[in-house]
Amino acid sequence: MESVKVIDNQSIFSSKEFIAMSNKLEILKEYQEAASKLDQLKSKEAAVCRSQQNAGDGTVVIKPQFGNEMNQLNEKCVQLNMILEAMDVAED
Q1: Domain of life, per the record (predicted)?
Q2: Are 15 and 5 in contact (CB under 8 A)?
């Protein structure tokens, strides 16, 4: 017989459902952390571009400082988002 977990004294989940929900929350947290870090790097990159524009003759040469890290984080976000979407579809 499958074990049962009680959450908040109201909802009852089978162990498979509980594990799936736990995994989804962990993946969602990881996605949010990666997206937040990506946004921070984009802001830093934009700040550098603005400072170059204000200091120069109007011509801005963009030299990505965080390009590799931003690409990796972007790819991670895409992959995690696909996993979350697949989990949503599987729940239906």
Answers
A1: Bacteria
A2: yes
